[in-house]
Amino acid sequence: RIRDVSGNSFVQNPTPFHVDPQCVKTHFNRNFADKKLLGFVADDANEEESTPFQSYDDAKNEVLKFDTDCPNCGTPTQTCMKPTDIPYFTTVILMCTTCDACGWKSNEIKSGAAIRDHGCKLTILIEKDIDLARDVLKSDACSMSIPELDMEVGPGALSGRFTTVEGLLIATRDQLKEQGDFFLIGDSRSEAENEQMKKLLDNFEQILRLQKKVRLVLDDPTGNSYIQSLNAPMDDSRLKKEFYVRTNEQNDELGLNDMKTENYSQLEIINEYE
Hints:
Blueprint: H1 32-38, H2 56-60, E1 64-69, E2 76-85, E3 91-98, E4 105-111, E5 119-126, H3 129-132, E6 135-138, E7 143-146, E8 151-153, H4 155-158, E9 161-164, H5 165-183, H6 191-208, E10 214-220, E11 226-227, E12 239-244, H7 248-253
Antiparallel strand pairs: 1-2, 2-3, 3-4, 5-10, 5-12, 6-9, 6-11, 7-8, 7-10
Keywords: Metal-binding, Zinc, Zinc-finger
Family: Belongs to the ZPR1 family.
GO cellular component, one term: nucleus
């Protein structure tokens, strides 16, 4: 049994392409004695003192943790949370949960800003390698479409994520393939639908290889989605940004119609017995 506080030890796996059943590797958080052994704290220090946050920037540089229960098995675990700034845009909250008991993992991203006054529609033309490498922030309320494929993905399909254009396309392709394998089997299977799904997946492969030029459209009524500009803060010829006024239905879905944020003291008190 090897316990290495530096994390630099290694035991060779005789079958490197498979999991070694004879070796179990676990990670742990260093205690105060381990940090003193590595020289991270002074030798004459008696107790570990936590440094209070002096500003919001100090909090942004720290990975915050809070206790939660694993949604898969119910075992107590921790969720890590860290604010990060996207240049020329806003602050987002990165959240990650890993359960050591069942191995369940979750990555989630939340906007650190309020719902904006106008919705946004972002259109990116994918024709070069650099376009696939652009950073993308997709909020929970953002829908995605590719007009050339006559395809639209609703806001709840991929949830919120911070990735690249290529990563977003791969996630969409994988989810379509997974759902296609589930629905296009058994009695519900249709040859026409099967061929249509196969053609759609082939088109995704062509897009990822830059053999097919398409437009990727993100429509976010909250205005909190983002595609990296190559010429920021100047205009990007392959990135189109449009801002629009939300419809009453969109405001209702976001819960804005029933929201009152000012003059709380003027709210009328309703007597339920009258």
